[in-house]
Design goal:
Strands 2-1-3-6-4-5 form a six-stranded mixed β-sheet. It is 32% helix and 13% strand. It has two domains: 162 residues, Ribosomal Protein L4, Chain: A, CATH 3.40.1370; 50 residues, no CATH class. Helix 4 packs across helix 5. It is elongated, with a radius of gyration of 27 Å. The two termini are 19 Å apart. It is an alpha/beta fold.
Length: 224
């Protein structure tokens, strides 16, 4: 796949051939969905906790005798059917939400979503991304210059800002700080790229060096 390369002003400066083992992978929606669900599940902290009848304070004495009162039989005021009693089948910290997905599946699903971004004109390659000062105004101008180069069929006539994911070859504190206050904009290092983050954002901006980092980090030793 041959794509255009732009500078920070939005001007075309050349073309680049994307590695086919990353940007020419057939889409399997079921696999991508499975990986996304596993990532979302692994992000759950599982901190919700309620007390059952054994953990609620009090209730050590039988409320009243078993027979002769005319009332129903009860053994503890902390029974789940009592007010202020324990909770039945409530959430506990013992439940584990973690899902394990094989590395090959995670890697292939990442290649699939990157391929779809490129095919649909939602991926843009920069020759470089560099800021002299960590100014939000400068970063906004760069993003504004690049939006017009995306597939015009995908751009809706809306005043709302489009979501953009900026993939950095390495950590750049100036770019990170300049992008922090821009709505629907996030930066991520190429080595940390994952399916969930790619799908959360509509547009993908990657400097040329970022493609090399992705290829070096995620490319398998043999074809999948």
């Amino acid at each position: 796949m041959l794509v255009n390369v732009y500078n920070q002003n939005g001007e075309k400066v050349g073309q680049k051939k994307l590695p086919p083992k990353i940007f020419d992978v057939k889409l399997n929606p079921d696999l991508a969905r499975q990986v996304v669900i596993s990532q979302m599940a692994n992000q759950r902290q599982g901190t919700v906790q309620v007390k059952d009848r054994a953990e609620v304070r009090g209730g050590g004495r039988k409320p009243w005798r078993q027979k002769g009162t005319g009332r129903a039989r009860h053994g503890s005021i902390r029974s789940p059917i009592w007010r202020h009693g324990g909770v039945t089948f409530g959430p506990t910290k013992e439940k584990v939400f973690k899902k394990i997905i094989p590395k090959k599946m995670r890697r292939k699903s990442l290649f699939m979503v990157l391929t779809e971004k490129a095919r649909n004109g939602l991926l843009l390659i920069l020759d470089e991304l560099r800021l002299e000062q960590p100014k939000t105004k400068l970063m906004k101008e760069i993003i504004k210059n690049q939006i017009k180069n995306f597939n015009v069929q995908q751009i809706k006539k809306s005043k709302k800002p489009e979501s953009v994911l900026i993939v950095l070859p390495q950590k750049d504190e100036s770019v990170v700080r300049a992008s922090r206050n821009i709505p629907k904009t996030m930066t991520i290092q190429a080595k940390d790229l994952n399916v969930l983050e790619v799908l959360k954002y509509k547009y993908l901006i990657i400097p040329q060096q970022g493609i090399e980092v992705i290829e070096k980090t995620f490319s398998p030793k043999r074809n999948l």
